[in-house]
Structure formats: structure tokens, C-alpha cells
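Final report, section 2: Outcomes. Of the targets proposed, Probable nicotinate-nucleotide pyrophosphorylase [carboxylating] is the one most frequently requested by collaborating groups, and we therefore present its record in full.
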Amino acid sequence: MLHPLTVEPIVRAALAEDLGRAGDITTDSIIPADAVATARIAARKDGRVAGLEAALIAFRLLDPAVSVTVERADGDDVPPGGTIASLTGKARALLTAERTALNLMGRLSGIATATRALVREVEGTNARIVCTRKTTPGLRVLEKHAVKLGGGFNHRFGLDDAVLIKDNHIAVAGGVRPAVERVRAAIGHMVKVEVEVDTLDQLDELLGLPVDVVLLDNMDPDTLRRAVRMVDGRLLTEASGNVTLATVRAIAETGVDMISCGWLTHSAPNLDLGLDM
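The predicted structure is given below as C-alpha cells.
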């Protein structure tokens, strides 16, 4: 579970965006200030729950005394119509926080659900499903946590926690070797180095250099299989590009260690959730 101090500023900013300058003029006009209500967060479709803690922070920011009963926590599966949590508190708070809470939960549960599907598809192979930095600005920590709740793993969080030398770096540096040499001269001994290659010739050049991981970009399964044999366990291998539910099994069976998938965090469909009063 993410620490509330990490999540609360994100939720607070989302609530402030929705409340605008005058607050919830609809709810405040209709609902008495002292009215109390009970509601449940329910799934309309099957999925993997993620973002519940963020959703509950939204309700608690508006009603610190709200009472919550959790039926299915983050990381749990929920069937269509299943209750995720029940809440009792100020009716105004429940209604005003509803959209922010469901936006976050729907987005994050969608990511967890999509990750779950890919993870299930590669069961029995050596491959891990990992996400990328293709995240929604401001939501990266939540989206990457949702990937973990779906059974996946995180790639680097930002530009500062690992080196990833990509094709544009190589083009500007004048080749793989000068790029790697400049990185190794600049970074500390604790930092991992990954290099992206597009061809087996590039991979052959890379194998003699001091790197930790190779990113095999947009290679078909036959080429990936040859690449894994060339590496022969000397580096971690990561496959990327053209990863779908239909292709991921074939990619995993090539023997790669990791399969990275950008659409998990930039295009996963929301899980349909509702707040039933």
C-alpha cells in the first residue's frame, strides 16, 4: 500500500480541480448540511481493484468522520455487481467526492485489470510484465502501483533512478560504444545501465560492453529467440513493442526476462465502477 502522504496531495489536487471556485453548487443546493447517507462503491464489470485507498482519501478529506467497510481491498478481484466498499457519512461529502474517487479508482483498476490479463497470459514462462514511463502526468506513482496490484512489475520511475540509452541517445553520441562509455564515466556504481537495440548486429556490439540490461525493441519472436541465445544469460533481456494480449505469450516463450508494455498506463480501459446511494 502506498503511504497516505504520497497519495493525499494527488487526491487533494484532483478535488480542488473539481470544486473550482464555488464548490459543488448542485449538491449544496439540494442536500441539507446535516444529512447523512450510506453508499457503496460497486463494480459494473469483472476486474482487479486498485485505487481504493486514494478514493477513500477523497471522501475523508471532505468528511473525516466517514465510516468505511472494505469488502474488497486493493489487489483483490471483484465480480460484476460486487461491492468494493460501503461508506456512511455526510451526504454532501459522499456526493461531492464521488466523481474524483471514481475517476481515480476506475483509471487505476483498469490498469490493474489489464496487467492481470497479461500476467495470466504468460504464466509458466520466465517473463515478467513491466510498465514504462508512459504514464499520466501527476499520476505516475498511482499508475505504477496499480501495475503491481495487477501482478506486474515496475520499470524505472523516472530519469534519475536508472540509465536507459535509447536510439536517439545512440544517434547523437555516434554509436553504442561511446554512449555507454560516457555513461559509465559519469554515474555511480549503484546505477543500472540498460541499452536499447533494434538489430542483432547492435546486440553483438553491445555484448562486449559494461551494461546490465538490453532492451530488444520491436523484434519479432524468431529474432527475439536468437537474441536471447546470443545473450546467453550475460544480461537481462527486455522485449518491447507490439505487445498485446494476442502476442504476449509468443514473446514470453522466446525466453526474455521482461516484457515492457506502455499501453498498460497510457491506454488501459477504465474499469466501470459506480457509487450507489
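The first strand starts at residue 36 and ends at 43.
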